[in-house]
């Protein structure tokens, strides 16, 4: 009598072993993991995405926060100077400034001497908003840097600051 006819069910093949960690299809190639620039890029992308999600809940974008930070940290700017300082396209800056002005976070005034020039100044509401956004950014930073101790975080910040200072076009 053949095994199928004996009345007992055929035995199923043994399940494949489940690997520890990410599935092999999602594992990052070691060649990439050996590149600090790859790790910086992936970490930065994850942090940026998390912060962008938090800002989007408020109807804001990262450029909105950048403009507010520039105005709070450096004072009023001509709109075209914000373009240069932040490295954003002039038409995009106009949209950001329009959005922030409509919401009451900045004021834009035409220069009496040069009507083409718009001066952008942060309002008290914009300062308060930036403080809230900074708290959101620090919360994201804490999430992303959770695996590091306080001293490791300070060391990482120091190293990244040194690298940033040497980048072409860094202020």
How would you characterize this protein structure?
The protein has 171 residues and is mostly helical. The protein contains seven helices and three strands. It has helices at 30-33, 36-56, 62-74, 79-86, 90-102, 124-144, 150-166, and strands at residues 77-78, 106-110, 118-122. It has a three-stranded antiparallel sheet. Helix 4 crosses helix 5 (90-102). Mean pLDDT is 88; it is low at 1-9.
* Class derived from helix and strand content: mainly alpha
Mean pLDDT rating = 88
Biggest sheet features: 3 strands, antiparallel
Strand composition percent: 5-15%
Element-by-element helix/strand order: HHHEHHEEHH
Counted beta strands: 3
User: What does the radius of gyration come to?
Assistant: 26 Å
- Spatial order of the strands forming the largest sheet: 1-3-2
Helical content class: 55-70%
Number of helices: 7
Low-confidence stretches: 1-9
Overall shape: it is elongated
Distance between the termini: 85 Å
List keywords for this structure.
single chain; 171 residues; mainly alpha; 3-stranded antiparallel β-sheet; 7 helices; 3 strands; 7% strand
Helix and strand layout, with pairings?
Elements (H helix, E strand, L loop, with lengths): L29 H4 L2 H21 L5 H13 L2 E2 H8 L3 H13 L3 E5 L7 E5 L1 H21 L5 H17 L5
Antiparallel strand pairs: 1-3, 2-3
């Amino acid at each position: 009598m053949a095994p199928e006819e004996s009345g007992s069910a055929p035995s199923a093949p043994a399940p494949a072993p489940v690997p520890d960690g990410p599935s092999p299809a999602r594992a990052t190639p070691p060649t990439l993991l050996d590149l600090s620039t790859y790790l910086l890029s992936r970490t930065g992308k994850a942090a940026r995405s998390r912060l962008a999600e938090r800002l989007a809940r408020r109807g804001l974008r990262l450029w909105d926060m950048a403009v507010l930070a520039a105005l709070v940290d450096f004072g009023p700017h001509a709109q075209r100077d914000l373009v240069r300082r932040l490295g954003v396209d002039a038409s995009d800056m106009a949209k950001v400034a329009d959005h922030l002005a409509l919401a009451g976070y900045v004021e834009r005034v035409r220069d009496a001497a040069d009507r083409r020039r718009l001066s952008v100044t942060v309002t008290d509401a914009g300062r308060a908003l930036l403080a809230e956004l900074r708290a959101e950014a620090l919360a994201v930073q804490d999430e992303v840097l959770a695996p590091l101790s306080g001293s490791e975080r300070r060391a990482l910040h120091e190293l990244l600051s040194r690298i940033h200072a040497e980048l072409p076009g860094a202020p």
